Amino acid sequence: MMGLFGKKDRIICPRCLGEVRVDSKKPAEMVCPTCKYVIPLVYVRDYAKALPVYIQMFGWSQTGKSTFLDVLRLHLYSMENVWRRSFAEPVAEIDFEHRRILLTERNEGKPPGANVKKTRDQTEVYLMKLNDMERWNSRFLVIMDHAGELFETFSVPVNEIPFLKSTPTAIMLISLPDMLGKGRTFVDVITVYKNALERYGVNFIKERRRLIIVLAKADLISNLPANLNEYLQSDDLGTILPPEGARFSLEGIVLAEYLERMGRVSDALRDWIDNKVEGGRAGLRMLEKNNIDARFVVMSSIGQDLRNTTGMVRLAPRRVLDPFFWALEFQSRER
């Protein structure tokens, strides 16, 4: 696996992950010579002080990847309500404009995606600087998302997804309620992921992969065990979003305990998937056999079923930050 943090006089392009030579004494906005992406000045200037967290999103259509990313960014823009010294900032124009739209939707009681956003093409990244976080310090969050249709077939067009091979961490969204009656099971999406990496030439023995498996729309899983449902529903961090703007302390030992509980939930979810989810045992064995280090999350981006909802919507997101925390934990270990 290529180095993702560059040499002393180089940075990694956040779009194609190629190395770019920079003048550290005179940082400036620059164009990547490989992919022609305009690398923002803030990224160039602060790269060494806020090393990137690279994440590839993976999931079929209708799993809610775009909604998850929108609601996650709303949380991150509100993290000063849990970490007193922290704040998030968009570093590219498209994300600056998306922030305005997300906040407008929230204030008007509209679900994410209600307003038209500038189209983001399949090679454009989500880029955000997260300043002075508890535990993880300052980091750039670099996320690549693609339309779910790219992952629908056994032969994923891997050449269109450079992050898939080069980033150590992927967030895989799986919507069990949307699989019902469609001939798909848990092992199928794991198979597509593994096959795509193999076609990209990944050696699973030499290159340890990190996978965060998120059971999206978990509030709609009818047979979710009571202890896992209690964990899902007991999350109040969604109230840090406007207009509520509630404040919590998620610092020091409180954060450590939160992460420790995340680990227990991941283990419990693994056991439930192994015993109760169709295709679960085969999928877990496939992960183990291919040296893929996986963690498991229950999450709901919206907290309700919007299919028959009219009028204003009061979002009640649950555990949206858990996949993000796992990504930070995974990539912090790789320093």
How many beta-strand runs?
A: 11
Low-confidence stretches: none
Q: How many domains make up the coordinates?
A: 2
Estimate what percentage of residues fall within beta strands: 15-25%
Look at the helices and sheets and give the structural class: alpha/beta
CATH superfamily of the largest domain: P-loop containing nucleotide triphosphate hydrolases
| DSSP summary: helix tally | 10
Q: What is the CATH T-level topology of the largest domain? A: Rossmann fold
Average of pLDDT: 88
**Which CATH-level-2 architecture of the largest domain?**
3-Layer(aba) Sandwich
- Biggest sheet, spatial arrangement of strands: 6-7-8-5-9-10-11
H/E topology pattern: EEEEHEHEHEEHEHHEHHHEH
Structural descriptors:
335 residues, alpha/beta, seven-stranded mixed sheet, two-stranded antiparallel sheet, globular
Tell me what the structure shows:
The structure is a single chain. With 335 residues, the protein is α/β, with parallel strands linked by helices. The chain folds into 2 domains: 48 residues, no CATH class; 283 residues, Rossmann fold (3-Layer(aba) Sandwich), CATH 3.40.50. The chain contains 10 helices and 11 strands. The strands form 3 sheets. It has a 7-stranded mixed β-sheet with strand order 6-7-8-5-9-10-11, sandwiched between helices. Helix 6 runs parallel beside helix 9 and helix 8 crosses helix 9. The longest helix is centred in the last third of the chain and has 24 residues. The radius of gyration is 19 Å and the shape is globular.
